[in-house]
Write a structure and sequence with these properties.
This protein has helices at 29-35, 132-138; strands at residues 2-6, 13-17, 22-26, 40-46, 50-54, 57-64, 67-74, 80-85, 91-95, 109-111, 127-128. 32% of the residues are buried. It is 10% helix and 41% strand. The chain binds zinc ion (ZN) (2 copies). One zinc ion binds next to loops.
């Protein structure tokens, strides 16, 4: 199956083939700020699953629990559509909510769940993961 994800204005588009490697929501501060929502929704694919792109992307880099990430966002509407973690060069993360016409299905992982908004309840059965270990390992403040 080929799915299309677009930014809000439609200026940026990607096509991906096959099923995601991972389908997760993340509650870290980085994902909250990136989306403006209570969590980020990320689906990951191998780079060779990304068939086509069209963009007016701009780029910024950020640090989080998975290390340095290159974020590609639409320079017109601001939607961050793609994230490329430096430590996982074969993987591309895509904003799950941007697959509006070709839904990617229900996430199975709640990442940085200890940072989840207290009012946000998740379905049963997801793999719940904490951010604490990563924060401790980095000796960093809980900032993604
Ligand atoms: Zn746009
Ligand atoms: Zn996150």
């Amino acid at each position: 199956m080929i799915r299309t994800a677009t930014c809000r204005c439609g200026g940026c588009l990607i096509e991906v083939q096959g099923e995601p490697i991972a389908n997760l929501v993340c509650h870290c501060s980085s994902c909250k700020r990136r989306t403006g929502g209570p969590c980020g929704w990320t689906v990951t694919f191998r780079r060779d699953q990304v068939l086509a792109r069209r963009w007016a992307f701009s780029i910024y880099e950020s640090d989080g629990t998975i290390g340095r990430v290159v974020n590609s966002f639409c320079s017109v509407c601001g939607t961050t559509l793609l994230f490329a973690p430096a430590d996982f060069p074969d993987i591309i993360g895509c904003a799950g909510g941007c697959f509006v016409d070709d839904p990617v299905g229900e996430p199975t992982v709640s990442a940085s769940d200890d940072l989840r908004c207290a009012w946000l309840q998740l379905p049963q059965g997801w793999d719940v993961r904490t951010s604490a270990l990563a924060e401790r390992a980095n000796g960093a403040a809980p900032d993604g």
